[in-house]
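Teaching note: in complex prediction, the entire set of molecules is handled at once rather than each chain in isolation. The prompt given to students was simply: 'Predict the structure of this complex.' The entities are:
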Amino acid sequence: EVQLVESGGGLVKPGGSLRLSCAASGFSFNNAWMNWVRQAPGKGLEWVGRIKGMSGGGITDYAAPVKSRFTISSDDSKTTLYLQMNSLKTEDTAVYYCTTDLRGSPGDYWGQGTLVTVSS
Amino acid sequence: QSALTQPASVSGSPGQSITISCTGTSSDVGGYNFVSWYQQHPGKAPKLMIYDVTRRPSGISNRFSGSKSGDTASLTISGLQAEDEADYYCTSYTSSRTWVFGGGTRLTVL
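The expected output is the structure of the full assembly:
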């Protein structure tokens, strides 16, 4: 059974940093695309970025609003996905979901989400 | 990359069929057969309903079906049930190696 458990959310001031983690199990992590998708309060879904497992070269892609501020990484030995968020803005406030892409969809399976609030 | 265009809301009565459209461009929906649809109930994580335009994951009712014509993809729900009331989102792969979501459609079962 695929399980994704996010952690690390919280309250941070504008301009600050935060690192989210996603513990994954139940599938071949080192060869999978993994995504971060966010949802601002009362708003729709927004794709943040993705990473291919290190066996696939550790390739990353990012959405334009977060490029150069956010970094996605993964640790195959811990089957854990990370999202390092720097220079945070109030508009980054959202629930952040960790998702798998095992069959050409950025959300085969979803974690429960972790809330990030950027506010002074 | 602009969000895909979905109607803000649709409604239907139990037993009826409804269709939700998702319009993009030749750089996303029209250029790839990587269109997915998600269902999201309030306070819950989204759930994959359709992938690769027409495929259903195991366990998803065959009342849900997907299609695509040109730059527009569609999700059809037949035999509408009360439990289908939720928000629905489409997504597509793009020529920029990114994914783009639609703005979401609220389905109300009357």
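Point out the following to students. The CA atoms of residues 78 and 116 of chain A lie 23 Å apart. Chain A has a mean pLDDT of 95.
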